[in-house]
Amino acid sequence: MSKRDKIIWAVITVLVICVFISSYKSGREDSMILVGNNDNYYFALYSNNNFSEKKLSDFELVRYDKETKKKERYNLHNIGNEKFADMREIKSLGDWILLKNIYNRNIVGININTGTAEVLVDKTPKNEETYAIKDLELNGNKLIYAYVSDFKTTLVIKDIVTQEECEIGTFDTIENVPVSIYEDKAAYILDNRINVYSINDKQLIKTFENLYSGELLVYKDNIYTYRKNGDYQDLVKVDMDENDQVILEKVLGEYNLYCDNDRVVYDNYFYDTNDNKLYLRTLENSWTQNRILLDDYIYSKDSKYEKLNYDENYYEYPLKTEFIRSNKQNINDEEDIAVLVGGEVAITKKGTNYVLRSFKGFDVDQRFLLWDLTYENNKVYNIAENNKGELELLSIDINTGDKQLIKKVNENISTIKHLTIHNGELGYLVQDGSESILITYNINTQEENSLKLDLSGYIQQLLFNDKYIVLLPWDERNLYVLGKGTGNILSKSQDKYYSLFALNDNEIFASSDLKYEVLDYNLNKLKEYNNYDKALEFFEK
């Protein structure tokens, strides 16, 4: 992690960003969320307040004509007293925006062409019945939805023009049954198996053998969904003969999948179904709950949509896996480094997720790998479990990708907590709940030492130089300074801190209640900043 990034993490413990944007032009309009587009329009919903528990009359439909560039607004008239949940429940495709009411009993459709709203599905209880609509999807005039009643789930396909309904089946489950529909086919996941249903023949035509879960999307002749891979999920493309192709391995979550102009979108990634390539949005630009793609536009800098520009606001993502197995380290003025989920090492452009090069790295797959990545002199270090179940302290040369065994690690896998380095001396912390031991190993002399520390509580962060050890405990948040030779406590800070990292051999940076301080290893205060901007200026000089 770069110094700049570390300061940002020191300032923010919980960051919640709600961005509401409007048209595809360069401008921006507050309190508006772009819902989607069709052949003729971009469209959005506007509210002068937040988007939770709203009546339809609290919204306006904003429609932007792609050809004439004309923007039109439509007031939406409320249907009864219905209220609607947050905007994450909205789905759109073609000429419709779909919303569920807050009790999950009705599906309301907003027609893009007419600017009017109507109830498409009404499951208001009659007598003592209970209903809850779970999942839904729309393609053309065909709506598929799943609802729960009397501890069973029923799947229905409805033509929203003719009002004709066809019940696929009722199943003994109250778990969510993901559904999708495309032209003459519908699909759903039940008991982790994909089932494909013919709309024309009104019958089940195939049940897949492999196990899948979460969201699914039927598009053309393929199904996009998640397949279990050990403790993770893979995003995969499956054809009707059950041949599957991994698009992205070991993903962080089962995000909603949708399609835009032959591109299947997952979180900040999109897969082009024509060129069979995966692309990634430049994450450092902005975060959004809007759709990231709208035709030739991508949600990018300054919370707005701009023209797709390869290598500027998106780029090809070559690794097929996400960053989740280590902290991120800054290695020079232009590059960062991180360990991927399988132990692969990726070098990225500084401050971005643009992959410059990658190596097989620590090759741990789903075996143990310490979160604390540490770096010095063109080598990255970590503790990893080999295929025999043994722990090893390893280095990876970031120029060649060569892996080297530094030493065997004999301590119990569950007790190793941290790894850091100072001038060629590696140190990791061993804690079993009753005592803390610092194991150090000098790479040059191959000398190994074990030092019992006079502090037994669990440690959040660890630093040391030639004379001192600085610890930040999880619970009390005071910094402790211990002697490097004795392990005895020499001093304790009066202030409470939330993070720290080494600046050089003699200085550390620590953050406390809206203060950012440069300290020496004796906790003497060398500099103090009262806001983030001033602290950042210090590091950018």
Please tell me about this protein's structure:
- The protein has 3 domains: about 25-260, Methylamine Dehydrogenase, Chain H (7 Propeller); about 325-410, Thrombin, subunit H (Beta Barrel); about 420-540, Methylamine Dehydrogenase, Chain H (7 Propeller).
- It is about 5% helix and about 50% strand.
- It is built from 2 helices and 48 strands.
- Helix 1 (about 5-10) runs antiparallel to helix 2.
SSE map:
Elements (H helix, E strand, L loop, with lengths): L2 H9 L20 E6 L3 E7 L11 E7 L5 E5 L15 E3 L2 E5 L5 E6 L4 E7 L9 E8 L2 E8 L2 E8 L5 E7 L7 E4 L2 E6 L2 E6 L4 E5 L4 E8 L2 E8 L2 E8 L4 E8 L5 E4 L2 E4 L2 E4 L4 E5 L11 E2 L2 E3 L5 E3 L6 E3 L12 E2 L4 E5 L5 E5 L5 E5 L14 E3 L2 E7 L5 E7 L5 E7 L6 E7 L2 E7 L4 E7 L5 E6 L5 E6 L3 E6 L4 E6 L5 E8 L2 E4 L4 E6 L2 E6 L4 E5 L2 H9 L1
Antiparallel strand pairs: 1-2, 2-3, 3-4, 5-6, 6-7, 7-8, 9-10, 10-11, 11-12, 13-14, 14-15, 15-16, 17-18, 18-19, 19-20, 21-22, 22-23, 23-24, 24-28, 25-26, 26-27, 29-30, 30-31, 31-32, 33-34, 34-35, 35-36, 37-38, 38-39, 39-40, 41-42, 42-43, 43-44, 45-46, 46-47, 47-48
Helix pairs in contact: 1-2
